[in-house]
Specification:
The chain is 57% helix and 0% strand. By secondary structure, the protein is mainly α. The chain has one domain. The chain is extended and about 55 Å long.
Length: 94
């Protein structure tokens, strides 16, 4: 089965100039194709548990993402300083 990653893609030769776009389109397609069923199930379950209309009225998409995923600013120094190390591991990995 062939699937165009973008309209007219079958007529475009991948070269040095467009390879990044090709890789991005391919990854996007593969991710969507391989996860589509699981994401649909997750969405269905989420909608059974949560009043989506209420959530949409309270949060925009960025706020909802932060509520679900947490802050995108990762503080590795804080993580290193508060982690509990075991089995011979240390903060400096020596």
């Amino acid at each position: 089965m062939e699937k165009e990653l973008k309209e007219g893609g079958k007529d475009i030769i991948v070269n040095k100039e467009n390879r990044k776009e090709f890789v991005q389109l391919f990854i996007d397609f593969e991710f969507r194709a391989s996860c589509e069923t699981q994401l649909a199930s997750l969405k269905k379950g989420f909608e059974r548990m949560v009043d989506v209309g209420m959530i949409k009225s309270l949060l925009d998409s960025g706020e909802l993402e932060e509520a679900i995923c947490g802050d995108r600013k990762l503080n590795f120094a804080e993580l290193r300083d508060t982690a509990i190390y075991a089995n011979g591991f240390t903060p400096t990995c020596n």
